[in-house]
Amino acid sequence: MKFMEAKFETKSFSKAFIGDSHYRDIFSGNPENVNYYEKTVRDTLEVITHFLQTRQNPLGDTSVHRNRNKIDHIPIDPKETISIKECLSELCDIYIDNATAFHHSSYVAHLNCPILIPTLAAEMIISSINSSMDTWDQSIGATAIELRLVEWMGKKIRYQEGFDGIFTSGGTQSNLMGLLLARDTYIKKNYDMIPDQHGLPSDAKKFRIFCSEVSHFSLSKGASILGLGKDAIVSVPVDLQYKMDLSLLEQMILEEKRQGNLPIAIIATAGTTDFGSIDPLTEIAAIAREHSIWFHVDAAYGGGLLLSRKQRTRLSGIEYSDSCTIDLHKTFFQPISASMFLMKDHRNTSFIQYYADYLNPKEQEADGIPNLVKKSIQTTRRFDALKFWFTLRTVGEDKLGNYIDEIIELSKETFHVLNNRDNFEVLNYPEISALVFRYIPKNFPDNRLTQLNQNIKKAIFESGKAMIAGTKVKNEFYLKFTLLNPMTTIEEIQKVIDLIEETGEQQSKHLI
Model confidence at 356, in pLDDT bands (50, 70, 90)? Predict the structure, then answer.
């Protein structure tokens, strides 16, 4: 059968429509559009610079209804197109003016860090060139950079030769990969089946994964996605420092075995979301070896300690992990998203890899062509490694380590400020940079403290003057600081604490 070649008349629209908001050809790769490209970048940079330099508060208008109402009334029919400058102006009203400013000194809420300027240059290159990291032919050079950074990080963890890794979208994906390898190595070792080919054995409902009661929710989510169910997660109580209790871990493993269940992994956390606590990694590694099960470390938060001269020993034992999670967009000051998943034994990529003739045919492997799709659960993937490459090349690991040390010192100072004020109760001494506390005015009824502190958080959020987080500990509501900005001073933190105290005094009057 012969296919008829269709012939189409082609026209160039570029020259005729440069500068017109309604022209057809606006692709960045057309050399004739260079002026439009440069003008777009300049106009955008002006808007971003204004946001970064003029924000007086970390928040603008926080009303859900007002913001939704503005956006719902904007026509998005292609017939109603506007110019880039008009679009930027509109965006300021519906997004930028009210966006949360993570770089602001009064933003002390979640695990959002300020970002380093060199990473913004990298982001522009990433988006403009638009490489996809699945195969070498789509990411020549970019693949080599990612591989080099994986090698660098593996050595920082102190893995021995033979490790491997990949950049991921975040800690949830990295933890999912750790659980996937834990599940499939156990199946391969104990059953006459290949999990990615044959599925799960009937015993999979008995699989058990141990982690602390304050570990990240992504572990339960991952167990559910992997077909093990949330019941597979066994939450081990923590000690007074909010670290996994080792004696209880041993007891709970033995108890699960007694019940006929099958321990397949222990997940240690190096930097819990609420407290920043670091589980005893070396001791947990020994327990995992004793029971011949997978040992994964979730260091999404605490991974930055790898670069600290003063605090690196807190991660001692991470080198014994079978896999680990490192989030660069937390304590490495990278824009979202930038995360890494590392595994001690590169052969475990066999549980992830797939070959497609049109994409990464198996023959290419024999030729030494590095197609990264074989060790990622993503196919299309951004060149996020470039941001970290720019950071190491222009900022350096020593300065990054100093930044980590500075936020830890700031957190310690903040602890002492809170602890020395009569109206505050602090639950933890910061191991990294998280503090959990609550406002407790004198003679205030205990049964109203949760409502009071919830009201404080809400009132401060609505004021836009600061942004703090909250969490529950033993069903009681507490406030939380997560300090990730090394440029923030203790004086600026004291102003936020003063604001909490002033707001607490006002709110308490309504609850008595």
Answer: confident
Going by the DSSP 8-state scheme, the letter that residue 6 receives in this structure is P
For tokens 């189409």, name the residue. 8
If DSSP codes are grouped into helix, strand and coil, which group holds residue 266? strand
Answer for the pair 371, 361: CB distance below 8 angstroms, yes or no: no
Do residues 381 and 134 touch, judged by C-beta distance below 8 A? yes
Q: From the CA atom positions of the chain, what is the Rg in Å?
A: 26
- Say what the alpha-carbon torsion angle 491, 494, 499, 500 is, to the nearest 10 degrees: 160
pLDDT band for position 373 (cuts 50, 70, 90): confident
> What are the structural domain ranges in the chain?
132-395, 398-511
The domain defined by 398-511 folds into: Aspartate Aminotransferase, domain 1 (3.90.1150)
The CA-atom distances, in angstroms, between 293 and each of 243, 254, 318 are: 20, 13, 16
Cβ-proximal residues to 346 (8 Å cutoff; 6+ apart), any chain: 162, 163, 164
Q: What's the length of the chain?
A: 512
Q: Find the distance separating the first CA and the last CA of the chain, reported in whole Å.
A: 86
User: HEC string of 203-223?
Assistant: HHHHEEEEEECCCCCHHHHHH
Q: Rounded CA gap, 201 and 383, in Å?
A: 37
Fold of 132-395: Aspartate Aminotransferase; domain 2 (3.40.640)
CA contacts within 13 A on the Cβ side of 129: 18
Give per-residue pLDDT as tens, 38-54.
Answer: 999 999 999 999 999 99
Report residue 146 as tokens. 């990612």
11 pLDDT exceeds 50?
Answer: no
CB of 198 within 8 A of CB of 189?
Answer: no
Among candidates 494, 386, 503, which has minimal Cα distance to 452? 503
Phi-psi region of 343 (alpha: psi -120 to 50; beta: other; left: phi over 0): beta
Task: Please state whether 2 falls in left (phi above 0), alpha (psi between -120 and 50) or beta.
Answer: beta
Q: What is the 3-state secondary structure (H, E, C) of 21-65?
A: CCCCCCCCCCHHHHHHHHHHHHHHHHHHHHHHHHCCCCCCCCCHH
The whole-angstrom separation of Cα 270 and Cα 276 is 8
pLDDT in tens, 118-159: 999 999 999 999 999 998 889 999 999 999 999 999 999 999
